[in-house]
Amino acid sequence: MKIKVGVLFGGVSVEHEVSIISALQAIKNMDTNKYQIIPIYIDKKGVWHTGEVLKDINTYKDMAELERFTSECILVNKGNKFYLQTTGFFKRYKYEIDIIFPIVHGTNVEDGKLQGYLETINIPYVGSDVLASAVGQDKVIQKSVYEVNKLPVLPFIWFYDYEYNNDNDKYLDEIKKLGYPVIIKPANLGSSIGISVANNLEEVKVAIKEAISYDKKILVEKCLTDLKEVNISVLGNYQSLEVSQIEEVNNSHHILTFDDKYLSGSKTKSLKGLSASSRKIPADIPKKMQEEIIAIAKKAFLALGNSGVVRIDFLVDNTSKKVYINEINTCPGSLAFYLWEPSNKKYSDLLDELIKIGIRNYQTKQKKINSFDSNILSNFNGTKGVKGTKF
Prior knowledge:
single chain, alpha+beta, Rossmann fold, D-amino Acid Aminotransferase, Chain A, domain 1, Dna Ligase, domain 1, 7-stranded mixed β-sheet, globular
């Protein structure tokens, strides 16, 4: 019997289209002998849709046509079985689901909100849980966790939009102390959206204004001028994990831009996504540095409590030869399959392992005590009863 996998993608996020590309890549590579694949698309208004036409990239060119050939739906738990239920006056169960595979990027979907919803329904799902997803999405909290775990990060400061607007001189002085150039980032976005390099005070002001248009929390960190960007993927959970080969990213900017990642050298319809970026695998770095990156990656994965597949981005200072952890991507573009292929792990095999990890995580959670059979309210007599209750 096939496992019924609900592939969930889209969402109210500026990375909406990137999610579609990543999801359709995965669907194309899933083993249909093992899985019944049910696409579940969240549009930009937050409405859920399902239907076979969602597997075709051309469907997303015309939302009116998409709505015509799909059904609006919600996910429900009925007797500990999970269904996509149509909305409207005549509700019906359209598909049964065994496990949800979220392939989502950015705010409202990758940041723990969606994972919290899936936890509430108690359906098995692939990927990091609520806390790991939330921390992985917030670059400021993420870096704080790295610091506590003594992992190397570049000097940084952060602030809220209202703090900067109320006293921008204070934060501009702090940024100046970091030393130019600096990188300004929205704390909770990915795909390089809203990120800028600033080389002087005026550029800093422009970059902060841009970042604030996307997020309320802003991160500013020291920018390396002679750097090498390398990435590694980690697969597993807290019980066991493995690492991919290390890639070296070749880009013409201080940062890998959205265009570098998703538009350069390919058209959307090709579904190349992040795999189209210019890269060298394995990275041209000494063995000792490779070992250091692997050790840091494993420690970061466990410190954040990740699960499934992640990509961890590093920066190497070519002058000092120091390695710095930059950030983690809890649901990386293209699921980082291109980092596993050089180790002879096909994309279909990677997807198999991710689904198995999701099932194991669910089974482990079900063995834990989540509630008590006793009802302390059975003898409840108003506020007096509360005061007399022993906890």
